C-alpha cells in the first residue's frame, strides 16, 4: 500500500543524480553532476514540487477550497500551481502582473494555466508591487470573489517552501562538495543549504539583477529555520541583463550544451546556471577534486517561439 499522503501526487523522489563528462570541467579536475529535479513530476518539475507540497498539505488540512498565487506572464510558478490544483481537484487563482489587453491572446504559459482551470486576474504593475501590503492584498482577494483562498507568495517562497526544499540538500549529503542552483526568489537555495551536511556548500546563481536576494534568503531562513545558515553564497554576475533575457551568447552556450550532452536546456534558469558553473570552472574557482552538482529545477518550455525574450515574467 502506498504511503504517499493523499494530498500529494505520485513523484520520482529522490530525484536522479547523473554525472556528465565535460572537458571544460574535467581538465580542471572538476566533476560535474546534475541533480535531475526536472524529473520529479511531469507537471510539477524541479523546485516547484519541493516548494509546493507542504503548502498543499496545509491548504487541504485547513479546508481551503482554492489556491491563490502571483506571477508574471511566463511564470513557471503559476503553471505549477495551476497543475497542482488540477491534480488535487482544488480551484486555483493566478494574479498576473501586467495589463490584460497586453496579454491577449494568452501566451503558451498562461494558456496552460487556463487549461488547467486557473482563473486569471491581471493586475497593473503599480498595484502588483504593493501586493504584500495587507490592505492591497485584502482588496485583491475581494476582487476575485473567492472565499478564504490559501495564499502562496510569488515564486512560492515561504517558510513551508524552505522546509520542503531541505530534502534537496539531504538527498545530496555525501554526494557533492558544492551544490549550485539558479535563484529567482531564493527559497530553493535557502532550503538546499539548510539540508546539506557540514562541509558542503550551496551556491546560488541569481537570474535577476539587482543584488536584493542575499537579505531575502537570510530572512527566509530566519523565519523557516530560526536562524540563517552560513554555508551558502551568491554569484550575481550571470543574470545576462535580467529575468528571461537570453542574449545570443547564452543561447549559443545552451545550444552547444545540448549538442554535447543531448540534454534539453531550459533558458530562463538552467542555462544561466550551467553557463555560470562552466565559467567558474574555467576561472579556477573550484579546486581540483571538487564535485559540483547543478540542480536542474526546470524543464525546457518548448520551441523558441514559445519562450520569452524580455524580462516580462516572474519567478
Could you please describe the fold and organization of this structure?
It is a single chain. It is globular, with a radius of gyration of 19 Å. The chain has helices spanning 23-26, 47-61, 76-88, 108-115, 125-129, 134-144, 159-171, 187-195, 213-225, 248-261, 270-283, and strands at 17-20, 31-35, 66-71, 91-97, 118-123, 150-152, 178-183, 201-206, 232-234, 291-295. The model is unreliable at 1-5 and 302-315 (pLDDT under 50). The strands form two sheets. A six-stranded mixed β-sheet has the order 1-2-10-7-8-9, sandwiched between helices. The chain contains eleven helices and ten strands. 38% of the residues lie in helices and 16% in strands. It folds into two domains: 17-42 and 157-306, Rossmann fold (3-Layer(aba) Sandwich); 47-155, Rossmann fold (3-Layer(aba) Sandwich), CATH 3.40.50.1100. It is an alpha/beta fold and 315 residues long. 44% of the residues are buried. It starts with 16 loop residues before the first strand and ends in a 20-residue tail after the last strand. Helix 7 (159-171) packs across helix 8 and helix 8 (187-195) crosses helix 9 (213-225).
Which tags fit this structure?
single chain; 315 residues; alpha/beta; Rossmann fold; 2 domains; 6-stranded mixed sheet; 11 helices; 38% helix
In total, the number of strands is 10
Under the CATH scheme, which class of the largest domain? Alpha Beta
List low-pLDDT spans. Answer: 1-5, 302-315
Fraction of helical residues:
25-40%
Major sheet details: 6 strands, mixed
Q: Judging by the overall fold, what is the CATH architecture of the largest domain? A: 3-Layer(aba) Sandwich
Basic shape: globular
Q: What is the CATH topology descriptor of the largest domain?
A: Rossmann fold
**What structural class should be given to the helix and strand makeup?**
alpha/beta
The strand order across the widest sheet is: 1-2-10-7-8-9
**Content of β-strand:** 15-25%
Order of helices and strands: EHEHEHEHEHHEHEHEHEHHE
Assembly category: single chain
**Cα-atom Rg, whole angstroms?**
19 Å
How many H/I helices?
A: 11
**Number of domains as seen in the coordinates:** 2
Mean pLDDT: 91
